[in-house]
Structures are given as structure tokens and as C-alpha cells.
Design a protein that fits this description.
Blueprint (H helix, E strand, L loop, with lengths): L16 E4 L9 E5 L14 H10 L4 E3 L6 E3 L2 E6 L5 E6 L13 H12 L16 H5 L10 E5 L2 E5 L7 H4 L19 E7 L2 E6 L13 E6 L3 H9 L5 E2 L14 E5 L2 E7 L9 H9 L3 H4 L28 H14 L8 E8 L3 H14 L4 E8 L1 H7 L7 E7 L6 H4 L16 H11 L4 H17 L3 E5 L2 E6 L4 E2 L15 E2 L5 E4 L6
Parallel strand pairs: 2-11, 2-12, 15-16
Antiparallel strand pairs: 1-22, 3-4, 5-6, 6-8, 7-8, 9-10, 10-11, 12-19, 13-19, 14-17, 14-18, 20-21
């Protein structure tokens, strides 16, 4: 690499400053530290944010996220149009887009990928496209694949027919579940391909067959898996790591300006599961919620949550959970017992499913147990590991669960879908016809304002029915030097598309007053 030297001379004095002006930085593999986690490498069934981040490199769908606004950008789809009744989307694919094995991506590959998603047992996000004609029926085993109206018109034209208008379809299709995944193993549609994987490292290499490969600057990415916070901090300080995804001791980081913090479009909450008779009744649940000291429950969180939906601009105000009164709670419990023929002195048992060793959940357990004891309610816990917790919920015979949910697209439906009857994301088993109808009616509205108005009414039903206990809205933290790594942008989903990363030109070094002439 060549260096240029410039001298500035002033009269009889040579007061020189030497500038080491460098050419644009040579691109290299970027090293990212991520928390210890067994990665699910199937985009159809993966549900963690860490996996979503990885999949922005390996796979791509019809649309992808704009790094800052998270608005949908055309990806494998280069253009689309919507019919006058808004129920037919005609999408044109990029001519010449290829999988990592060099095979061209055609409309039939897109349809095949969607059909495999809908046919995958346990695919958590598949119900997000239930509005496609025939999709829900096929997903639930009540229809045929050929009746799913994702129609191939020709090699580069796909027509999606909807039951109701769906203005947010493009937003949903940014999600990794709707990536175009070929049937062949170890073949990828995104800007990188998987080179190596072990319990401690995942290595990606640039996919030269990718349609936008000329704009992918770096040759590869290494995800280094481990939760040794001290070691990660040391490696970052000495340049071995370029980006740490939260798993470091911030106090050990030399340059504190490298901490990037953003509020996430997410909510930490607890929810009831409708499987044991007493807690299926909203009267009993409401009595429990009236007794919770919310100020104490939420006191350790910087952004406290009173509602499920993390409000977006224009979303109407919803009456959340903030006030509580233990005397009122006792009266509400007495009324519920009387209504359903349960003796006042009968002990009601409730099981809270927790993560082993989680300090926050232990504290919550103590707070809830103390609050509910005067109601004649005995709280017990059952636990499993963090790794198994979410996947255990569908079969777990407990009454109360913990969830940390990051919206998958910037819309209230990203939260409200969690409680829609028939949704593949609905672990609560709660079903309310009025709630479901409001979400359906929202799809039919022409404006965001009208859609949000109906969605807010649906959320109010959910809160009034005492299904959820909101606690906080999370904050994400990363350590990355943005003067060195370009293309990284903070955003509400905490998703940072890997294709945009690059090494910036190294800063110009200045060494003053090295030479002096008398």
C-alpha cells in the first residue's frame, strides 16, 4: 500500500506535519462475537433474533429490509403491482438471479419454497401468510398444495391472490421465514454461503453468484460463539473482534463511544395459557392482575411497558396495566369464586414456567407469589434451560409463561398475531371472535389510521381479558466502531443486514512538528 507524504513550509521555518493518507481500506473478513446459542439453521423453523441476523447473510426473499427504516426493499423481486381490489399482487423476479450453486432462481422455486414453509410442522411464522388464498387450509392439513394461490405465470412472474387486502404483505415477506430456500442442501439465495460451522464458530463466505454481488464488499464473516465477557472485551480492544452483539463487559471496553444502544420494537411480558380450567376464566385472571404491584415488578427496567404493542407513531392510546389495588383484588377473587362455585378457603394453584437460574424470573416469582397469596392462590414454578424454553411452551402444562418478543416487521400486527385464533404463533390457546374480527377488518381498511384504530381496539380486548402482563420494552446493546465498520445502522428490530457491511477507509494519521529548520 503506497503512502504519500506532504510538507507544509512557512518562510524560514519548516514546521512540518506528515500525513499518512491511505487508499481505501482493504476489505477482509469481519469478526462478530455472538452469545452462546445452538443455531437453528432452518429459516422455516428458526425464531431467535440471533438466527434472523445470520439469515440476512445466507438467504434472501422477494423483499429485504432497508437497514435504517426497515421498509421493504425489492430483493429477488425487482418490481410488483397491486390490483385495484388490492387482492392480487403480481411480482416480477430479477432475470439472472441465482442460488449459490449457480442455478437460476425462477418463479417455481419461489412457489416451492413457500409451499414447503406452509407444510413444515412447527414453522412459527407460517400463519403470517394465512391471508393468501388456500394457505391456511393447506397449513392446517385441510387443503391441497395446488390450491394455494401463489401462481406461476412464467419463469419470472408470480401472482399472489389474497382473501383480503394486505397492505403490509411486503413487510412480512422481508422476514427470514419467507426467504427463498432451495430443496438442495447447502445452497443459498443470499449474499453469503455457509463455509464452516462448529459449536464455537460459523463462517460465511461471499456468494459470487448473488445477484447484487458487486455491492457486497467484504469477502466473508465469522460469527464467534461464546459468553466469556472478559475474553470478548479483550479481543475487541486488541482488534480481534469487529462487532460484539452484547456479550461483553462494557466496563472493560477502552473506547466507550463504541457502545451502540437502541430501543427495540419489542416487549417483555408474561402470558396465560388456556389449558387449566380456573385460569381459563377472565374473572380469575383479572383478580390476579389487579393485585400485582406493577411499580415493583418493572422497577429495574429503563423502558417500562403497560401494553403489549410497543406503540408506533399514529397508533391510538390503549389503556394499559399500571394501577393496582390489593383490596379490590381480594373482592374480585371472592366474586369469581362465588360465580363459579369455588369455596373461599380453597387453595388455587398456578404454575409459572421459568428459565433455570434466571434472576429476573426469580424476582418476579417472589413478587407475584406475595401479591397473590392473599387471594388464596399458591404460585409454584417449573423450569427448563433457556435453550429449551420457547420450544417447550406448546407442550408445557403450566399456566403462566414468560416471553421476550421482538416484532418481525414494523406493524402492530407483529404483536397482535401472537393471540389471533389459529395463528401458528399463538401459544396461549386463547381465542376471541371479536378480537379476530377486528384484525380481519383492519386488513380491509384503506388507510394506516383506520387500520391502527381497529388494531388498538383489538389490543384493548386482549388487555381487558387479562391475558398478558407487560413488563418492559427491551433495549439492545452492541459494541462496534462505526468509524471502522461501515454499513451498520441501528434500528428498532435490531436486524443489521450483513450485505451492507464493509471496512471504511482508515482515518488519516497526523504526526505534527517532526522537522524544524533554524
Amino acid at each position: 500500500m503506497k503512502k504519500k507524504i506532504f510538507f507544509i513550509v512557512a518562510l524560514g521555518l519548516l514546521n512540518a506535519t506528515i500525513f499518512f493518507a491511505q487508499e481505501p481500506a482493504e476489505q477482509r473478513t469481519i469478526n462478530i462475537s455472538v452469545s452462546n446459542h445452538v443455531y437453528n439453521m432452518n429459516p422455516f423453523t428458526a425464531s431467535y433474533t440471533s438466527e434472523a441476523q445470520l439469515f440476512t447473510g445466507l438467504y434472501e426473499g422477494l423483499f429485504s429490509y432497508e437497514p435504517v427504516t426497515l421498509a421493504p426493499l425489492p430483493a429477488l423481486c425487482k418490481s410488483y403491482k397491486i390490483s385495484r381490489d388490492k387482492k392480487r399482487w403480481t411480482l416480477t423476479l430479477r432475470n439472472g438471479a441465482k442460488f449459490s450453486n449457480g442455478k437460476e432462481i425462477k418463479a417455481q422455486d419461489v412457489r416451492n419454497s413457500f409451499i414447503r414453509l406452509l407444510g413444515t410442522k412447527g414453522a412459527p411464522f407460517a400463519s403470517l401468510i394465512d391471508n393468501i388464498s388456500g394457505a391456511q387450509e393447506f397449513r392446517l392439513g385441510k387443503g391441497k398444495a395446488e390450491d394455494v394461490r401463489i401462481d406461476v405465470r412464467d419463469d419470472y412472474t408470480l401472482v399472489i391472490r389474497l382473501k383480503e387486502p394486505m397492505s403490509h404483505l411486503a413487510k412480512i415477506l422481508c422476514h427470514h421465514s419467507f426467504s427463498i430456500v432451495p430443496e438442495e442442501k447447502n445452497v443459498y439465495s443470499g449474499p453469503f454461503f455457509l463455509e464452516n460451522q462448529s459449536p464455537s464458530e460459523i463462517e460465511l463466505k461471499k456468494n459470487t453468484e448473488y445477484w447484487d454481488a458487486q455491492n457486497v464488499k467484504i469477502p466473508g464473516i465469522k460469527f464467534l460463539i461464546g459468553d466469556d465477557y472478559q475474553e470478548n472485551s479483550f479481543k475487541y480492544n486488541n482488534g480481534e473482534l469487529d462487532w460484539i452483539c452484547g456479550n461483553a463487559d462494557f466496563s472493560k471496553i477502552i473506547n466507550k463511544a463504541n457502545l451502540q444502544m437502541n430501543a427495540e420494537f419489542g416487549t417483555v411480558y408474561m402470558f396465560f395459557k388456556m389449558q387449566n380450567e380456573v385460569w381459563k376464566k377472565s374473572e380469575f385472571r383479572n383478580a390476579l392482575l389487579e393485585a400485582i404491584p406493577y411499580d415493583e415488578l418493572r422497577k429495574k427496567f429503563s423502558i417500562q411497558a403497560e401494553t403489549l404493542v410497543n406503540p408506533l407513531p399514529g397508533y391510538p392510546k390503549v389503556t394499559g396495566l399500571a394501577d393496582w389495588d390489593n383490596l379490590d383484588a381480594v373482592e374480585m377473587m371472592k366474586d369469581a369464586r362465588k360465580k363459579y362455585g369455588i369455596k373461599e378457603d380453597e387453595k388455587l394453584k398456578i404454575v409459572f414456567a421459568v428459565i433455570s437460574g434466571d434472576q429476573y424470573l426469580k424476582e418476579w416469582t417472589d413478587i407475584l407469589s406475595k401479591a397473590w397469596e392473599p387471594l388464596g392462590v399458591e404460585l409454584t414454578t417449573e423450569s427448563t434451560t433457556a435453550e429449551l424454553y420457547n420450544t417447550s411452551i406448546p407442550e408445557w402444562n403450566a399456566d403462566l409463561f414468560y416471553y421476550s418478543w421482538i416484532g418481525d416487521f414494523a406493524d402492530p400486527l407483529a404483536f397482535l398475531e401472537l393471540f389471533r385464533g389459529g395463528s401458528s404463533l399463538n401459544n396461549s390457546l386463547w381465542k376471541n371472535e371479536k378480537y379476530d374480527q377486528l384484525l380481519l377488518d383492519a386488513l380491509r381498511q384503506d388507510t394506516i389510521e383506520e387500520q391502527y384504530k381497529l388494531m388498538a381496539q383489538a389490543e384493548q380486548i386482549l388487555l381487558d381479558d387479562a391475558m398478558v402482563i407487560p413488563v418492559s420494552h427491551p433495549v439492545c446493546a452492541h459494541i462496534i466502531d462505526l468509524s471502522v465498520i461501515g454499513g451498520w445502522k441501528g434500528n428498532a428490530l435490531d436486524i443489521h443486514p450483513l450485505k451492507y457491511l464493509y471496512l471504511q477507509e482508515a482515518p488519516v494519521k497526523r504526526i505534527p512538528n517532526l522537522v524544524k529548520l533554524n
